[in-house]
Amino acid sequence: MADIRRLWMHIEFYVKKRVDFVTLDRLSPESYEKFLTRAAIEVSRETFPAKVFGISRDELREMVREVIVDIRADKIVRPAVDKVYSYINSVGETIIVYAKTKKEAGELMGLASYVNPLYWGKKSTIKRILQVYEGGRAELDNGEYRQIPHSGQFINLYGHGGAA
User: How far apart (Å, rounded) are the C-alpha atoms in residues 113 and 108?
Assistant: First the structure.
C-alpha cells in the first residue's frame, strides 16, 4: 500500500491551487456537495485512490471536505508548540514543513515533490525554525534567518501528513 500522506498532499495542493473560496461561499448546500464530488473525481484522476490507497470516492470526498475546513481555519506558525522546519527549494524560495522530526520533514519534502515541482529541494537545507519574529522572519537552529512565505509554500500545514 502506498503512503497515504502523499494523497493528503495531493488534496491539500489541489485545494490551495484550484478552489476559489469566494465562489465556494456562495454555493448552496446541494451545490457544495456536488463541488466536493467533482473535486474528488479530479483528485482521483491524478492519484487513483481506490487502486493505490484502497479509498472509496465517498471517503475521498470527506478528505477533501476536511482539508477545506482546515485551510479556512486560522493557522499560526508556533515553533515553541509545533515542530516546524524550513528548507530552500530548487529556485531559492523558502518552504515550510510541519513535521515531528527532521527525518520526517525530509520524507514529507520527498512526498510533496511528487505533487508539485515547486517543492523540490535539497534535504541538506532543512533547518528547524526556533522563533518567528514580527514581519515574518524566522530564526533557524543554525542562526540563519529566512522569510516565512505565503501558505502555498507550506507542507503539511494542517497535520494530515502525520505531524501536528
Answer: 8
SS3 32: helix
Residue 95 DSSP label: E
Find the DSSP H helices in the chain: 4-18, 21-25, 29-47, 49-52, 57-72, 102-115
Q: Which three cell numbers, joined as nine digits, stand for 159? A: 497535520
Cα dist from 55 to 5, 52, 140, whole Å: 13, 8, 38
| Distance (Å, whole) CA 48 – CA 92 | 32
Instruction: Report which of 89, 156, 152, 72 is spatially closest to residue 126, judged by C-alpha positions.
Output: 89
What residues form DSSP beta bridges with 147? 137
For the stretch 114-140, pLDDT in tens is 777 778 888 899 999 998 888 888 899
Please name every residue paired with 161 in a beta bridge, in sequence order, or none if there are none. none
The secondary structure of residue 101, as a DSSP letter, is S
Q: What is the pLDDT of residue 62?
A: 93
- pLDDT digits 0-9 by tens, 38-61: 999 999 998 899 998 899 999 999
Q: Is 156 left (phi over 0), alpha (psi -120 to 50) or beta?
A: left
110: CB partners within 8 A, 6+ apart: none
Entry pTM: 0.70
